[in-house]
Amino acid sequence: MEQLNGPESKIHAALIEEVELPRQASAPHMSQDRQERWQGFGVFCSTFVTIFLAELGDKTQVTTLLMSAESQSPWMVFAGAALALITTSLLGVLVGRWLANRLSPKSLETAAGAALLLVSVSLLWDVVHF
Fold this sequence. Notes:
Radius of gyration: 23 Å
Oligomer: single chain
Order of helices and strands: HHHHH
Strand content: under 5%
Number of strands: 0
Distance between the termini: 64 Å
Number of domains: 2
């Protein structure tokens, strides 16, 4: 294998560091507390990205856009929409935790899949019959 010199070696070192950082995050020499913080951060990031992408262009965002366009107080629309989203998210977390304590993960996954399938079929039905 060829040795890299100059700027290429710096890029190579940076790439190695990028690959090693996640590996070190779950390294056995890391404290339990630090591992839990990294895992928590991963859950936060994946939740944020998933919800952010799911909400782009949905009816909530369109409604907020229209209300803001018609309002003389767009910041109040923002505050109201943000509080509504936080409240519905809190309800989702609380109900999700309650269900997780009562159902097996497999049952919960099956029920969620069936509910999403039912919503999809309902939406398809509406599209086809209009």
